[in-house]
Amino acid sequence: MRSLSPASRPSGLAELGAPAYVVLGMVHLGARSGYEIKQAVENSIRFFWTISQAQIYPGLQLLEAAGLITGRADPQGRRPRRVFETTRAGEAALRDWLTRDEPMPFELRDTGMLKVFFADALDREQALTLVRAIRKRSADRVRTLRAIEPAARAAEADGNLYPGLTLRLGIAYHQAIIDVCTVFERQSAPSRDG
Amino acid sequence: MRSLSPASRPSGLAELGAPAYVVLGMVHLGARSGYEIKQAVENSIRFFWTISQAQIYPGLQLLEAAGLITGRADPQGRRPRRVFETTRAGEAALRDWLTRDEPMPFELRDTGMLKVFFADALDREQALTLVRAIRKRSADRVRTLRAIEPAARAAEADGNLYPGLTLRLGIAYHQAIIDVCTVFERQSAPSRDG
DNA sequence: ATGTGCATGTAAATTGTTACATGATTCA
DNA sequence: TGAATCATGTAACAATTTACATGCACAT
Question: Which band of pLDDT confidence, cut at 50, 70 and 90, is reported for residue B7?
Fold first, then answer.
């Protein structure tokens, strides 16, 4: 049932799932076409939420049918394009979702952590190699996120404070991982004992 | 194709996916039956990796067919039960997986962060409510993880150091989120300006 | 002319969860 | 005697990704 709804609820109206609200939120922030929404996701929330084209275009149709966005054709030359904007109902629906008192699932699937968990099956040097690998992975991520900081500051100048907060959260998260790994490596590494 | 493999590779032998290695790893750590594996997952890795019964039992069959574990019937009274242990090939396969130089995907899907990202659509007080909610969620998680610390220390006494490292990583992660939220709330909260 | 980016859309495959089906054992 | 726990297994379902299909615009 190719819906963008979560596990169908008993309720009458088909309720929207998170992917549809992502599309709605991005249109609210100024992404006009499906293509622009995809770009916006890649440039911002991809670190804690991903969404594929195959969710975006049906999502736009769903939101339009629900009256939360309106679309019109806006071809560039002979290249077809549809642009969207939120309706008043759409703005209200977005705020309703944001303030809804519902569980906010936090799902992590981390192959690195998984391997570290089982690392006692390795000898010490190999296990430490794993720890270094996940430290490096987080260090790379911190660099990637820091590179986005100027864009976040630009958004703040536009009155959008919260994307910057999610960025700081991501940086802090990975910095914490780096710190824990560094301490562990120092405690574990000496190898040549006195 | 109900396989526990990742995107089928061109290679001859069906390669095992992460869920199968989780099962193998848990058997290696002493979980003997499907039921015990499920318990072990709930008591340890569930914070960064989940797996359902419907993956465990087929996984055991797959690993047994591949010669990485051996199972035998071990009924408790009239209640049937199968217990497993790793073979030498299984231990080797586990170490091979752990040392393999391959990408270790880090996938996060966090509805809380998502809502925070779009929180500029709300008025300040409502947005802060959201920030407080994710801070509280991480505080709860830290408490849950701290409650596991004694078990991790017991595992360390048994020579299993790495489960404790993943626990410290989880705590540090959520503590970092708490800290960033706290700072943000302080900066943003005053409301009654001087 | 050719590769990259803009642009939309869907079919098929994959991956994973939920719910069901079944039944024994233990404890209150 | 009834609930909780132990124990195994699978069918049906839901959610998401990958790959395909198509074609214009623009720069080199």
Answer: very low
